[in-house]
Amino acid sequence: MSGVQTKDVTADEDEMRVDRWFKKHFPHISHGMIEKLLRKGQIRVEGGRAKGNQRLSAGQSVRIPPMPEPGEQSEAPAINRDDAAYARSLVIYQDKHLIALNKPPGLAAQGGSKIKMHLDHLLQAFGKGDQKPRLVHRLDKDTSGVMVVAKTAQSAKSLSRLFQTRDVKKTYWAVCLGVPNPRAGEIKGFMKKSTEGDRELMVGAHHGEEGAQHALTRYAVADNAGQRVSWVVLRPETGRTHQLRVHMQALGHSIYGDGKYPCDYPDPEGLSRKLHLHARKIEIPRDGQPPLVLEADLPRHMADSFDALGFNPDDNLMLVEEALT
């Protein structure tokens, strides 16, 4: 076990996330342990508590608590052949900079308490060590759809900046309870993290309140099955935790299958009870070229629900997306 250390951020580590920086220097430490140390305030930047997604600046000092040496704890298991084949089956696009995958519902982006199988583990199918692709954004465990991973450290830096500055356009499809009125509009306000028992939730907050973050979502109803349920196209202009789920609950039309953020509408009968939220499309700007458009097919449970409800993705979708701009 090492003692307390302090390391300075180098020039080539400028703008690197804290969790990525930590993993680079201590590759034998699991992501779950890093998150635990961050929650307890044992990892500090310039003397202050740090968050995993915090960006570092060259010259900053990072306090590192006592850490086990390599070999003192078991390393993450290597990916097996079946899991590697499964990971490759998720690929919908790749080039020299990035890989886009269609993440299935139920697969977490990263490991944590009691989470053994996750996307970050599956990325070993594309390279080991420094060659393993890097996550540049997140989706909730039960949300499906497009996820982009960077093939190199430089690509990770540029893509992370694009996601952080909202230059990437993201479009989600959701099946919601009831029918929003008006059929197109925006939802905005402040939200913050809250703890309810052993669950972490996002709740409404006031401007200036500690931990409050502004969030903005544009929405448009693409179709509806009577007044029971609707297909809503969502475009988050900010990227807060559970933003779309919280905003649809605030609108009074929760996403179907969302037990964490429910509303008063009764559930429709005969549909899968899985969360009906899908990251359908990501548009990434490119210098001197048209944006890179990445689309992911619906997961089976949502495709079945679309069929049962009579929702046709080809009907008026262009007009709906124009309403979001």
Features:
about 325 residues, alpha+beta, eleven-stranded mixed sheet, four-stranded antiparallel sheet, 15 strands, about 20% helix
Explain how this protein is built.
- The chain is of the alpha+beta class and 325 residues long.
- The radius of gyration is 21 Å and the shape is globular.
- The protein contains eight helices and 15 strands.
- The strands form two sheets. Strands 5, 6, 7, 8, 9, 10, 11, 12, 13, 14 and 15 form an eleven-stranded mixed beta sheet that branches. It has a four-stranded antiparallel beta sheet with strand order 1-4-2-3, with no helix packed on it.
- Number of alpha- plus pi-helical segments: 8
Backbone CA Rg: 21 Å
Indicate the structural class: alpha+beta
Q: Give the termini distance in whole angstroms.
A: 54 Å
Listing every helix as H and every strand as E from the N terminus to the C terminus, the arrangement reads EHHEEEHEEHEEHEEEEEHEEHH
User: What is the 3D form?
Assistant: globular
Strand content: 25-35%
Count of extended strands: 15
The multimeric state of the shown protein is: single chain
For the sheet with most strands, the description reads:
11 strands, mixed
Helix share, percent: 10-25%
Low-confidence stretches: none
